[in-house]
Amino acid sequence: MALRAQTGPYFGDFGGRFVPESLIAALDELGEAYDLAKLDPGFGAELAELGRSYTGRPSIITEVPRFAAHAGGARVILKREDLNHTGSHKINNVLGQALLTKRIGKTRVIAETGAGQHGVATATAAALFGLDCVIYMGEVDTERQALNVARMRLLGAEVVAVKAGSRTLKDAINEAMRDWVTNVATTNYIFGTVAGPHPFPEMVRDFQKIIGEEARQQVLDLTGALPTAVAACVGGGSNAIGIFHAFLDDTDVALYGFEAGGEGVDTERHAATITRGRPGVLHGARSYLLQDDDGQTIESHSISAGLDYPGVGPEHSWLSAIGRATYRPVTDAAAMNALRLLTRTEGIIPAIESAHALAGTLELGRELGPDATILVNLSGRGDKDMDTAATYFELYDQENPK
Amino acid sequence: MRTAGPVIRRRNDEANGALIGYLPVGFPTLDESVEAAVALVENGVDVLELGLPYSDPVMDGPVIQAATQQALANGFRLTHGFEAVRRITERTDAPVLIMTYWNPVVQYGVDRFADDLAAAGGAGLITPDLIPDEAGEWIAAAERTGLDRVFLAAPTSSDARIRRAVDASRGFVYAVSTMGITGARTDVDQAARQLVARLSDAGAPASCVGLGISTAAQVAEVLEYADGAIVGSALVNALATGGVPAAGALAAELARGTRRE
Ligand SMILES: Cc1ncc(COP(=O)(O)O)c(C=O)c1O
């Protein structure tokens, strides 16, 4: 079977639905609505039109030779999801799930967010479709992504700062699930990545796979060939699966996912789930997981809020297990250096999440050599990260901090 | 083996039904959680449900979250769960079930967990985030060891899923009274009454209602139609604020709800 034909609930040994029985009816309802929508040309047409006239699809590709000079001379081509409305790939998925919310007749949406990009996209869709919206965000993340908190509130969403546990993305997901169990009659959970219980990993992937479908053709048109390698950062894994998917059965195209290596995978402060974790169950699915001997989730660390998650989507665990994709860690420092390098050489400021893919590409280019072409998913723009970057690179005036 | 079914049946013969009390292991300390559990039984709790603290408790409200986070911060380990079961069963006759999220069991090893729980004198497992569809390995281990396996049924469960929960469960079926998470509520949902009726139509030998029960009056009301009433957050709250004596006193008060007038 073609790898691209794989559907949920299971991807090899991974996936499933490890959730309270109270949520099963809602997951079934969502899955059935999605299965019907897939077959309905009207749904596809409506989503495509939103992509064209609201998101700005297709997103362009940009070749970046001055950056590529630092990558062993390989050709480097960026897929510009940073240019989407709201500033990242997250909007692709949110518009799909918001349309489904209307179909199942629910009037309230909830979402978790780490970097705030998924929260902003969800608040945006809620404004567009007139839905009530509550966003759960770990307290640590509301501080480091304060700009996005303000954006969500301006869009009319309620933002709840989650104070439980590690106060980051995983705890925001726990709180969103508790809300969903309680308010499932009126509420749809717009999940932000390819993790979670079935149908989310399959559905979110399907809404994101347009990234790779467009890029595959765009690279062919530009270079006359498929890329040597495709690179993306991996938090939960939605932008990565989005750009990988169209290439899964192109066996000559190597696929690389770059995880957040934090302060180094030999320290305790990283979020390199596939590199350092082992299979377990979290947030409704069996997948790789950072955990201790007792199965307690270990708190992750990354300078990037969007990658600061101790789990990963089950399809990535499967692609790793069967050897189709390779996952490597990238440290905070390497990512920040790549962020600055792309900014200085090409005038494009990437999100810190996406900068992990760029740092990985610098290394990959040196390994693959000047004949290689590397397609990189530039999943988001760096506006939201200016405070982190300014602090990291000491860009604020010393006399007038901020 | 000391399982829950016979005790629940007996309490329905001699009283209105069974009172089931929940406490997390290791809160506020391992010793005090054992003392508190023993005090519950001495004050009229018929079946114990011991929660294993877990880093990501999606089914739990603020009271139980706070307690289990404190237990984890104090160094809770899975083996403390077996130790607590052993110490409690040595001192009481009540069946002791473990309530646990699924990943700790997976990491310990499902068969090894079942063997160690049975060896400690435990009655079985309640698994809030494991549905029968994903439970093949656990059902086989429970079959082999004779442990109870308690699955949940919700007001939104389809008829087919209700049948599935009934078929998969041993001991009792945990009827989720209302849509939501753990925590005391002022009125226990009417939905619970309907759900229990659907469970008995599907052939459930015993259904116990949980989530939101905190007073003797609510226990009495639930036992009009259910075989057992499960109280969690209210007991944890009593333990947190007034220690073992307060937990025991609340248990005695709740147990009045099981008495026939
Ligand atoms: C720009 C950007 N890239 C990547 C991610 C990571 O998510 P995923 O791995 O699902 O693409 C995020 C998450 O917030 C993000 O904002």
UniProtKB/TrEMBL annotation, chain A:
Which residues carry the post-translational modification N6-(pyridoxal phosphate)lysine, per the record?
Answer: 90
Q: Which CDD domains match?
A: Trp-synth_B (cd06446)
Q: What is its EC number?
A: 4.2.1.20
Q: Which domain of life is it from?
A: Bacteria
Spell out the InterPro entries in the cross-references.
Trp_synth_b_CS, Trp_synth_beta, Trp_synth_beta/beta-like, TrpB-like_PALP, TrpB-like_PALP_sf
Query: Which family is this protein grouped under?
Result: Belongs to the TrpB family.
The protein in question is named Tryptophan synthase beta chain
- Which species is this record about? Agromyces albus
Q: What is the lineage of its organism?
A: Bacteria, Bacillati, Actinomycetota, Actinomycetes, Micrococcales
Query: What gene name does this entry carry?
Result: trpB
From TrEMBL, chain B:
State whether keyword Amino-acid biosynthesis applies. yes
Question: NCBIfam families recorded for this chain?
Answer: trpA (TIGR00262)
Species name: Agromyces albus
What's the protein called, per UniProt?
Tryptophan synthase alpha chain
Q: What is its EC number?
A: 4.2.1.20
Q: Which UniProt keywords apply?
A: Amino-acid biosynthesis, Aromatic amino acid biosynthesis, Lyase, Tryptophan biosynthesis
Q: In which pathway does it act?
A: Amino-acid biosynthesis; L-tryptophan biosynthesis; L-tryptophan from chorismate: step 5/5
Q: How does it assemble?
A: Tetramer of two alpha and two beta chains.
- Gene3D superfamilies the record matches: Aldolase class I
Q: What does this protein do?
A: The alpha subunit is responsible for the aldol cleavage of indoleglycerol phosphate to indole and glyceraldehyde 3-phosphate.
Does the record's keyword annotation contain Manganese? no
Q: What class of enzyme is it?
A: lyase
